[in-house]
Amino acid sequence: MREKFFGVLQRVGRSFMLPIAILPVAGLLLGLGSSFTSETTLATYHLLDLMGPGTVPYFIFSVLSKCGGVIFDNLPLIFAIGVAIGMARQEKEVAALAAAVSFLVMHAGISAMIGLTGGADKLLEGSTAMVLGIQSLQMGAFGGIIVGLGVAAIHNRFHQIQLPQVLSFFGGSRFVPILSTLVFALVGILMFFVWQPIQGAINALGMLVYSSGYFGTFLFGMIKRLLIPFGLHHVFYLPFWQTALGGTMEVAGTMVSGAQNIFFAQLADPTVTHFSTAGTWCFTGEFVLYIFGFPGAALAMYRCARPERKKQVGGLLLSAALTSILTGITEPLEFSFLFVAPALFIISSVFAGLAYMLCHLLNITVGLTFSGGLIDLALFGILQGNGKTGWLLLIPLGAAFFAVYYFTFSFLIRRFQFKTPGREEGDQETKLYTKADYHARKEEGEGVSAAIVRGLGGAANLADVDCCATRLRCTVHDGDKVDQQILKSTGAAGIIQKGQGVQVVYGPQVNLIKANLEAYLRSGAAEAEQPIIQGETEHREEAEPEHGELLRTLVIGSPFRGEAAPITACPDEAFAQKMMGDGAAVIPWEGVVTAPCDAAVSMVFDTQHAIGLELEEGVELLIHVGINTVALKGQGFKALVQEGDRVKKGDKLLEFDLDYIREHASSTSSPVLFTTMEDNQRLRLLKTGHVKPGEDLLALDIYGE
Amino acid sequence: MKQFSYVIQDPLGIHARPAGALGKAAKPFAGTVISVAKGDKSAKVTQLMKLMGLGVKAGDTVTVTAEGPDEQAAAAAMEQFFKENL
Lengths: 705, 86
Fold this sequence. Notes:
The complex is a heterodimer.
Chain A: H1 2-15, H2 17-35, H3 39-44, H4 48-51, H5 56-73, H6 75-87, H7 92-116, E1 128-131, E2 134-137, H8 140-158, H9 175-210, H10 213-227, H11 233-242, E3 248-251, E4 254-257, H12 259-267, H13 285-304, H14 310-327, H15 331-338, H16 342-361, H17 374-382, H18 386-389, H19 394-416, H20 426-455, E5 462-467, E6 471-476, H21 484-489, E7 494-498, E8 501-505, H22 510-522, H23 525-528, H24 530-535, H25 537-543, E9 550-557, E10 562-566, H26 573-576, E11 582-588, E12 592-594, E13 599-604, E14 610-616, E15 619-624, E16 637-639, E17 646-647, E18 652-656, H27 658-664, E19 670-674, E20 681-685, E21 689-691, E22 696-703
Antiparallel strand pairs in A: 1-2, 3-4, 5-6, 6-8, 7-8, 9-22, 10-11, 10-21, 11-19, 12-18, 13-14, 13-17, 14-15, 15-19, 16-18, 20-22
Helix pairs in contact in A: 1-6, 2-5, 2-14, 2-15, 6-7, 6-8, 7-8, 7-9, 8-9, 9-10, 9-11, 10-16, 13-14, 13-16, 13-19, 14-15, 16-19, 20-22
Chain B: E1 2-7, H1 16-26, E2 33-38, E3 41-44, H2 48-53, E4 61-67, H3 71-85
Antiparallel strand pairs in B: 1-4, 2-3, 2-4
């Protein structure tokens, strides 16, 4: 259980790597852009003329800020999709689509609930946010992660579901977005009720912090860190930054409340000799963490990575650390250990609390507009002078934190074998689950998938596999290696090959066949399975009989207007099992049977529900209208020909009362089949779905003996 | 040559499904010619269309003939098939 839990956690952690990889770039754009477009900053340094609104630099930095910002604003969506991709076992693109849809649906659900209960104004300040233009609850990355995990669970469970024939278009992977939509509409409603009490509790926590002095500062730092993954930190810190909860102070003759407001009031007041901790207690600790502490953690993770993966992981960790140092954006770094080793995150939160508290105690007073990176430190610490801020003290304090982070993380990672980046047993885990998959699916699709792969010339010959509504569309490297006989034995209705392009027609269930095939290819069983296939001699003999050259092909048209399917889709078992012969089952839309080719009428059953045609010596075709129609004793049928007549393609053979048959027979599905199949003959179904009378339906390939 | 006669009990007679089943039941005796006769018309059990063309109905008497190396077993199997299905 424990191992399974950590296995899942590890996969979750790894699934974060794709979205996290975007963040350093986004962080740089946002960090640079927002620092140099902040009017407060520009005014402080008298740069408004040079870089203020209307100037070229302002224009450039605004664009940078917006482009970086949009990634952070939509981080939950990126996580929803990224986690779904990471956690889905196959057909990840379907999971990605389902996650995007579900994310929208969930927030739309929450939004509707907010609207119905009196609007966002009734909720706590900081508890709502615009999510892709939808007024919703502020759920942070957590909102995206529950979508990603939920959708992946639905996907892994249902992406191979087989629905009844009439609904089969919606079966397989297409079922996943459909089901996810319904599920997450409900989750949205649920979240509306669950999330608000949580937000309320966090808000109340703020009051506790406010009344606890230096220890309150510690609590603030720790709690803010802990809340970041849940997006709850906004509800928590905003009151401190902007309301009286963060302190009230008289600056330059006016009363100012909220820590950030106090700091900037003092910044603008030339009479201040040293900034007050009232304006900085909930900021300054960030510099210690982001510039010194977290990079120490990154170094520890790098040193603990397995040697062969150090290079790869080094790139990720270095860019993450630089982003943290420069811009103060820490998500890339924190998320790299948060999910695989929550214990480290909790310890990091305690350190964070200490950092805030120590800065408060040591009277270091560097404020910030955006985050605790070098950019803000330069603007609000260094450039203000050590006299006003005491920023030089950050260096020894930071060095201590760097060491504490480095040694603590190194020790804990090694001691508890945390799977931080570069320490995962990557290959082993992948193998484990595919092996389980392999066993689970052995009975269903594996034999078919194996045969398809063989028919396409082996896994190595496959360049691409895709499907449309009824066909498996493959690209192979070598068209000559394709064995159509084997492909036909897999239940294919027809095969169309043009050089490297191969289309195998299966009908609407192709979705499922493709999913099975992909799973099979991914499992790596394609090679391993080869000997077993060859061991199945009986199966192979049937699939690949010894015969000579193709002599000729007889093509017949459809005798009906209707929906054609392989004979195996016929609701009568005896027909479906090809007991009477091989061919197609057509569901007629009109009560007329026309001659599918020139032929002699060899039999008209005396109840007139079935007609036999002789195409040539020894090749006979049976057209059987409906299932169990023999019991109608001729009622509703009117044969227009009799035994011995010669007919031309298109001649009317039989009329029947479709409504009567619909009402009285068990099915209107009408088998059209060759009853005289010999070992040297092969049948191909040329068309499934809508067919017109006379449209090519079946082909009979006749080979030399 | 082995032969037996049988009076069809099944109200629907030999239509497509029993004809197909009959052909399948005769499969193990590939070397033996098995035919069903009604009046002066006869059809081999492997010829589905001709078999259906006999128009065998309830109350008709059919004569089943087996000729070949396995005629004994084939005739027995056919008799059993007719009794169980027709």
